[in-house]
Amino acid sequence: MKLCVLFPGIGYHCEKPLLYYPAKLAKSKGYDVIPLKFSGFDNSAKGNEEKMSRAAGHAIALAAEQLSDIDFSQYEKVVFIGKSIGTIACLAYRETSGVNASCILLTPLEMTFDSLSHRCTAFHGTADQWADTEAIRKLCRKHLVQLHEYENANHSLETGDTFTDIRTVLDVTEKISELL
Fold it and tell me: Distance between CA atoms of 93 and 72, rounded to whole angstroms?
């Protein structure tokens, strides 16, 4: 048995493309899929380290609560897919729970790398308004995290050009398919 857990972002739920298509793909590959639901965030957290820290703590608590009844030992493979604040929650949850999961980090934040980041792959847009590209590059190199970059893409990996954005979602989904 295989399990895929989706850790959403502050405003990026599991029905949006970067989480929706990987979830659909995981199901097609025989994974049980658990889409977590996050809410109750301070929407003014961007750029404020204290508020971001509280938001991260809130996401970690929500994840722990929603996963408290899951017996991870019954799964031969576990994959966590996090988006934004969800990348912080998935790594922190993996570290504190001891779950042997590989992690896919969709638009990680600099705080994401406060937890152990082994067995991770990251996806980042070079116009991400929530994370500095050079800082993400350095953190990924330091922690040996494979990084896929999307030129001029924002925190949702979108550029504003519909066809470029569709190609990006396809590319991300194909890379995730290889990781699953």
Answer: 12
User: Mind listing the pLDDT tens digit for each residue in 32-63?
Assistant: 999 999 887 767 666 667 777 888 888 899 99
Range 2-179: architecture per CATH: 3-Layer(aba) Sandwich (3.40)
Cα dist. 46→19, 22, 49, 63, 85 in Å?
21, 26, 8, 21, 11
| Strand 31-35 with 120-125, pairing | unpaired
DSSP code at position 131: S
Name the pTM for this structure. 0.94
Phi, psi for residue 59 in degrees, rounded to 5: -65, -40
Question: How far is 115 from 109, CA to CA, in rounded Å?
Answer: 12
Q: Work out the number of other CB atoms within 10 angstroms of the CB of residue 16.
A: 15
Enumerate the domain spans of the chain. 2-179
